[in-house]
Every structure is written in C-alpha cells, then in structure tokens.
Amino acid sequence: MIKALTGGKGAGKTKALIAQVNEAVETAKGNVIFISNNTSSAMYDIKRAVRMIDTTDFDIVDYSEFEGFICGIISGNYDITNIFVDGLFKIVRGDDLDGLERFLKRLENISKKFGIAFVLSMSIDEKSAPDYVKALT
Questions:
Q1: Contact assessment for residue 101 and residue 130, using Cβ atoms and an 8 Å cutoff
Q2: CA 33 vs CA 28, 61, 91: distances in Å
Q3: From residue 83, how far is each of 3, 20, 76, 88, 123 by CA, in Å?
Q4: φ, ψ for residue 16 (rounded to 5)?
Q5: Is the pTM of this model over 0.90?
Q6: Secondary structure of residue 85 in the 3-state scheme
Q7: Among 12, 34, 65, 76, which one is most buried in terms of CB atoms within 10 A?
Q8: What is the pLDDT of residues 54-82, one digit of tens each?
Q9: Three-state DSSP string of the chain
C-alpha cells in the first residue's frame, strides 16, 4: 500500500505525517522507518522507537537512486512494516514528475512483495497533481 500526502508548502504535510508515524509505531507489528532530508527538525516529535534516516549524507539525486536506497534499508531489516518519507521532492532534488509514476509503480511492487506500507509526503498542488498521484491520496 502506498499513500500520498500532497499539498503546497506550509500545508501541514509534515505534521500530519509525524502523527501517522507515531500512530503506526504504537500499532505496528514490526519496525517503523522515517526517511527525510532533515530528520533533526522532527526528532523531538517522533517517538524513540522509530528508526530515523537522514538522506543528506547519501547524495541521492533521482528516483532510481532513492529506490535503491529503500531496497538497501529493507535488505538489512526484514521486520519493517511501515516506511514514511517526508519531502520526496527534497530527497530526489526537485519536483521532476518524469520518473515519479515509474517510481511509484516500483514502490507498489516492493510494498506488495515485502508487506510494507509506504506513506510519502510531496509538495504538489492537489488539484494539478497527475491522476496517478491523486489515486494515492
């Protein structure tokens, strides 16, 4: 399962995502992962049991690299049940929609194969978002 939190800057996506992270850690039967390009801004709001990963040290520049990054996380821990991504376009450096649909399809396959629920926040206007993004909201 993949869900998307969309909206413009300042729409409250991160706050909503953090609430979902903290709820998931209470109910999940496995490990919960929070991926962001700036985990320090959320570190005091997210419960201690959540594994926080900051992508700034890894120089991720596109969707393919980010997919590999996620697969690496999964390969090191088969007990993951939830992965939350804050600011997808900040991680892949821009709001390039060219590779987004393919990335989301591949992420859906990973979700089904490993039983991991993904929630992604992305700064994109809900009305002008492509239909494949709207379907995830």
A1: yes
A2: 11, 20, 15
A3: 11, 11, 14, 12, 18
A4: -65, -40
A5: yes
A6: strand
A7: 34
A8: 999 898 989 999 999 999 999 998 899 99
A9: CEEEEEECCCCCHHHHHHHHHHHHHHHCCCEEEEEECCHHHCCCCCCCCCEEEEHHHHCCCCHHHHHHHHHHHHHCCCCEEEEEEECHHHHCCCCCCCCHHHHHHHHHHHHHHHCCEEEEEEEECCCCCCHHHHCCC
Q: Return the residue matching tokens 């804050």.
A: 86
Residues 6+ apart with CB under 8 A from 40: 54
Residue pointed to by tokens 């005091």? 44
Q: How many CB atoms lie within 10 A of CB 49?
A: 11
